[in-house]
Specification:
Blueprint (H helix, E strand, L loop, with lengths): L3 E5 L3 H11 L8 E5 L2 H11 L3 E5 L7 H11 L6 E6 L4 H9 L4 E4 L4 H12 L4
Parallel strand pairs: 1-2, 1-3, 3-4, 4-5
Helix pairs in contact: 2-3
């Protein structure tokens, strides 16, 4: 089974940036998936069961907090590692991220090296 990373963001340039940041993992057999809103993300998570999800907070149809809450609390899919990505770095948001079960919280603009290091750690891939 190939390992999978899901990138969820409604902004095309952010999705592209994350895809470019993570594309080297494809050489290790990792499949990159992407979604443009929370509802689409939830469908992909249920069907594809990615190991790692980079999840934007502010999105149409269903926000990142609701997606995370559904995955972790309602579906009990705790083996999926969720990185919340947001432009808002307030403590309140970080607490809300923790409350819905997010594994880690990163603020935009993110450091590509941090994204790569986190993905390698979660997927157990040597850099």
């Amino acid at each position: 089974m190939p390992k999978k990373i899901l990138i969820v963001d409604d902004e095309p340039h952010i999705r592209l940036l994350l895809e470019q940041t993570l594309e080297d993992f494809e050489d290790d057999g990792v499949e990159l998936l992407s979604a443009t809103n929370g509802l689409e993300a939830l469908e992909i998570i249920k069907s594809e069961k990615p190991e790692l999800v980079f999840l934007d907070v502010m999105m149409p149809k269903m926000n990142g907090f609701d997606v995370c809450n559904t995955v972790k609390k309602e579906l009990g899919m705790n083996d999926i590692y969720i990185v919340m990505l947001t432009a808002k770095g307030q403590e309140f948001d970080k607490q809300k991220g923790k409350d819905v079960g997010a594994d880690i919280y990163m603020t935009k603009p993110f450091n590509p090296d941090e994204i790569i290091a986190k993905a390698a750690e979660i997927l157990k891939i040597e850099l």
